[in-house]
User: Fold this.
Amino acid sequence: MDADEPFLLTDEAITQTAQAWRNDHAGNPHRFLIGIAGIAGSGKSTLAERLVDEVNRLQPGAAAFIPMDGFHLRNAELIAQGWKPRKGAAFTYDSEAYVELLQRYRTRDSVGGYPVYCRIAHEPIPAEDEVTAQTQIIVTEGQYLLCPDLPWARLNDVLDECWWLDLAPETARGWLMKRDLAVGRSPEEAEAKYQRNDRLNTEMVLSARRTPDRVVRWPSVDEGD
Assistant:
């Protein structure tokens, strides 16, 4: 498919994609790695989880979801650097460790843990989930997967495909505001957070990115991550 032609993420399309992955990559000498890039609030983690769940419904344990959020720097380091208000910006991740872990898990006989982000403690949890010998497909997602700067640019050689989840910034902003309100922020606090951080990250992501292998869109605007 032409990368400029948006692919609609209907339920049927997600199911068919998962089936194709399972059928096409079972015998690969390396694992199939797929990345989902997009601005904050576009529904990246929602899409990644749905794809992984669908693959695992067809073949339990065949797919793993490694989110970029597991590679947030710890809050103590962010505070020490004065970066806590910008948490979620590209420089607030251990990007080298993220790229290296994905590179390592391309090899089918490489197994082990990977960190995930706890939204209760607001910290990464080391080695919380695992890539096993049964894992054939790894899905990852994050804002900076198509960033042209190093070390992010090395993902071009690590990922077999990288998609761009296309969503209007104003729609994504609405989803982010809704999420912040749900965790107890006031409307004023949610707006301030968006303006000082999420808006800047969105502008950075949209200003420079490598060409994706596929552009995808939700068929309606009721998703979010």
Summary: The longest strand covers residues 123-131. The mean pLDDT is 93.
